[in-house]
C-alpha cells in the first residue's frame, strides 16, 4: 500500500477476492519456477481482510509468501523484477512487494519462516473466520479508524487491541502454527 493512499474499505464477494488471490498466487509461483526458487518456499497464504468472507477490506489482496530465511531477499527481488511493483526492505526477514495488475492491487509479503509476522497474519485470519463476534468487532474498529484517520500508522495502531484479542482466540484454536502472543 502506498503510504499516502486514502484508507477506504470496500465490500466484494468473497469469491472475487479468492479469484484475485489465486491469480496472484499463480503469478508468484510462476516467478518462483522461473528463478528456480520454488523449493525455498514453505507456504503461500491468502491473508488480511480479503481472506475473510463478509469482512470489509481495503481494496488490496495480501499474500504471505513464507520462505526459508536466507531466501527472503532473492524471492523478494525475483517478484519485484519479474512481476513489477515496489519492494521494501523492511527487515532481513520481511520484504513486501506492492503491486498493481490490471487495476487490482496486491501486497506480496515475502517473509522468512522465523519472522512472526506471517504467523500473526495467518492466526488473525483463522480467528476472524472462527468467531463471528470478533469479526464484527474488528470490522467496527476498522470502520471507525478509517473514518477518523488517513494515516496508515494510526489506522493500524487503532486496531492493536482487537488484534491482541484475535491472537488470544487463535492461541486457543488447534492451529498448525505457533501463534504470536502480541499483535
Walkthrough of the structure:
This protein is an alpha+beta fold. The protein has one domain (9-171): Beta Polymerase, domain 2 (2-Layer Sandwich). It has six helices and seven strands. The protein has helices at 14-34, 72-83, 116-130, 132-148, 152-158, 160-172; strands at 9-10, 41-47, 57-58, 61-67, 86-87, 94-101, 104-112. It has a five-stranded mixed beta sheet, sandwiched between helices. The chain has a two-stranded antiparallel sheet with strand order 1-3. β6 (94-101) and β7 (104-112) form a beta hairpin. α3 (116-130) crosses α6 (160-172). The longest helix has 21 residues, at 14-34. The protein is globular and about 45 Å long. The model has no long low-confidence stretch (mean pLDDT 93).
Secondary structure elements and pairings:
Blueprint (H helix, E strand, L loop, with lengths): L8 E2 L3 H21 L6 E7 L9 E2 L2 E7 L4 H12 L2 E2 L6 E8 L2 E9 L3 H15 L1 H17 L3 H7 L1 H13 L11
Helix pairs in contact: 1-2, 3-4, 3-6, 4-5, 4-6
Count structural domains: 1
CATH C-level name? Alpha Beta
CATH topology: Beta Polymerase, domain 2
Would you tell me the structural class of the helices and strands? alpha+beta
Strand content: 15-25%
**Order of helix and strand elements from N to C terminus:** EHEEEHEEEHHHH
Instruction: Indicate the overall shape.
Output: globular
What is the fourth-level CATH superfamily? Beta Polymerase, domain 2
Helix content: 40-55%
Main sheet strand line-up: 2-4-7-6-5
User: Whole-Å distance between the termini?
Assistant: 20 Å
Low-confidence regions: none
| Main sheet specs | 5 strands, mixed
Number of helices: 6
| Mean of pLDDT | 93
The total count of strands amounts to 7
**If classified by CATH, what would the architecture be?**
2-Layer Sandwich
Rg measurement, Å: 16 Å
Amino acid at each position: 500500500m502506498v503510504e499516502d493512499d486514502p484508507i477506504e474499505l470496500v465490500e466484494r464477494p468473497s469469491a472475487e477476492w479468492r479469484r484475485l488471490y489465486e491469480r496472484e498466487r499463480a503469478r508468484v509461483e510462476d516467478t518462483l519456477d522461473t528463478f528456480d526458487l520454488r523449493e525455498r518456499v514453505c507456504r503461500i497464504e491468502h491473508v488480511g481482510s480479503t481472506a475473510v468472507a463478509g469482512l470489509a477490506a481495503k481494496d488490496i489482496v495480501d499474500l504471505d509468501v513464507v520462505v526459508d530465511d536466507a531466501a527472503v531477499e532473492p524471492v523478494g527481488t525475483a517478484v519485484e523484477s519479474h512481476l513489477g511493483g515496489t519492494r521494501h526492505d523492511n527487515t532481513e526477514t520481511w520484504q513486501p512487494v506492492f503491486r498493481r495488475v490490471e487495476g487490482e492491487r496486491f501486497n506480496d509479503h515475502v517473509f522468512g519462516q522465523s519472522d512472526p509476522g506471517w504467523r500473526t497474519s495467518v492466526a488473525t485470519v483463522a480467528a476472524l473466520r472462527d468467531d463471528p463476534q470478533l469479526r464484527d468487532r474488528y470490522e467496527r474498529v476498522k470502520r471507525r479508524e478509517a473514518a477518523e484517520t488517513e494515516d496508515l500508522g494510526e489506522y493500524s495502531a487503532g486496531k492493536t487491541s482487537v488484534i491482541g484479542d484475535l491472537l488470544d482466540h487463535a492461541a486457543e484454536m488447534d492451529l498448525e502454527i505457533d501463534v504470536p502472543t502480541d499483535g
